[in-house]
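A favour, since you know our structure tokens better than I do. Could you add the entry underneath, on a fresh line?
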Amino acid sequence: MDHGSAESKKALGFLKTVRGQIDGIAKMVEEDRYCIDVSKQILASIALLKKTNLVILKQHMNTCVKDAMQTGNGAAKIDEITLILEKYVGDMGRG
């Protein structure tokens, strides 16, 4: 992954936002805030983590997978992506 790319910076920004959200959620729990409000904040953090994951996977496909395909070594990278997508789709089915 090109850590200097715009996509990497975007992902890092999302992760920093999630870190702030998690800190806020912990404070809400410490303050014994209303459970539904805490739950909504948890769901917002999960949604942002999923969005971040898609940015990371897109970057992976545009760099690592693309490079592997050009050198004839793409099968393993495609298998990696397939396993991640299976987990993602599996989680969606349970949610």
